[in-house]
Design a protein that fits this description.
With 204 residues, this protein is α+β, with helices and mostly antiparallel strands. Helix content is 38%, strand content 28%. Belongs to the GTP cyclohydrolase I family.
Length: 204
């Protein structure tokens, strides 16, 4: 799946035709097996729509997060914490193929190099737009930044709601899952507390 922005109001999405057809056939079978009439008006194009949606929701497999970071690294003598918080996260639980969504908070302490700020949300998306578990997603973001920048420390916290817990199973509508992962300086209590304080405060 290739998505490109041509104007501020127009986005063109290009999908693999062979993959789309294969997925659509499979979804048509699933819908029929569930007892629906796949030939009724409202469902005629549904298999194709789902096929395209799933390609978009998992397009992170086509992205290289490490290369995304390396494309915008700059030498800078800055030794203080850099935090990008409240990054929207949308992913697919690999156990039930249902969405989980929430926010990621990412910080690092540079060690001679910084990265363009937009690249942090980009790698969050690159890892999130796959079949995932929140625990692994948290670690992957941390490890990618650590490998690319070799900073003095990395911190990642993700807070998310899981539809597999809300619309099925235990059906707890207000449950939020929080995961965290730290390296280097953030393993020290003082630095970690500063990070938690920064992501907890609302910008005013």
């Amino acid at each position: 799946m290739i998505a490109k922005q041509t104007k501020s109001y127009e986005k063109i999405e290009q999908y693999d035709e062979e993959l789309t057809a294969s997925l659509a056939d499979n979804y048509k079978t699933i819908i029929a097996d569930l007892g629906e009439d796949v030939n009724r008006e409202g469902l005629l194009k549904t298999p194709e729509r789902i096929a395209k949606a799933m390609q978009y929701l998992t397009h992170g497999y086509e992205l290289n997060p490490l290369e995304i970071l390396k494309s915008a690294m700059f030498t800078e003598d800055h030794k203080q914490m850099i935090v990008v918080k409240d990054i929207e996260v949308y992913s697919m639980c690999e156990h039930h193929m249902l969405p989980f969504f929430g926010k990621a908070h990412v910080a690092y302490i540079p060690n001679g190099q910084i990265v363009g700020l937009s690249k942090i949300p980009r790698i969050v998306d690159a890892f999130a737009r796959r079949m995932q578990v929140q625990e692994r997603l948290t670690d992957q973001i941390k490890n990618c930044i650590q490998e690319a920048l070799n900073p003095l420390g990395v911190a990642v916290v993700i807070e998310a709601q899981h539809m597999c817990m809300q619309m099925r199973g235990i059906q707890k509508q207000n449950s939020v899952t929080t995961t965290s992962s730290f390296t280097g300086a953030f393993e020290k209590d003082k630095t970690r507390k500063e990070f938690i304080s920064l992501i907890s405060n609302k910008f005013s």
